[in-house]
Prior knowledge:
Blueprint (H helix, E strand, L loop, with lengths): L1 H8 L10 H18 L4 H13 L3 H14 L4 H13 L3 H14 L4 H13 L3 H14 L5 H13 L2 H14 L4 H13 L3 H8 L1
Amino acid sequence: SGLADALSLLSTGYYGNLPVAESIAKALPAAQRALAIAPDSAEAHASMGLIRDNQKDYDGAIASLQHAIKLRPTYTLAHVWLGVVLNSIGRYKEAAERDAEALRLDPLSPIINTNAGFDAIRFGNDKEAESRFRHAIELDPAFAVPYSGMARMKTMRGDLAEALEWAQQALERAPTRAFYLARKGFLYLQLNQPERAEEWLL
């Protein structure tokens, strides 16, 4: 199950640059093996949910993750990943509820605090979003995602110069993440600096 999760999270759909099809092809047999060994393992069902999310099988992903939570209500990652899936299909209120439960279970997790920050942006609470992102950075200064969250929030506020600084900090921590490279290029376009944008987009 852990191997399946690692292979899923290394895909371009999550944190890495592994092509999605390759990620699924490698992760799926590991998750299936985990289920064969332990059919009532919450972790194994959650692993399948993550894979199904990568496959864009959102109904299947939700079913697997809900079953994982039923098997073990305190399995934090099942709540986190269910929140991710629900956000993907626009069920933002339900996603925020899953993220809030994950935060209750594990208030010291950088990614859970970061996800709560993205929820806060979505619902127009910039103060809460900034608090969550900064807390995540305090918990793990090397974790790139909350820096990206700050860049997104500053962009939405129109503070493009500050957004660029936060985007750069995200890139320093994850220099090969294509999404971060694209965001920096797009910010240069918004700042009317097309030549600088071209350096990051091409």
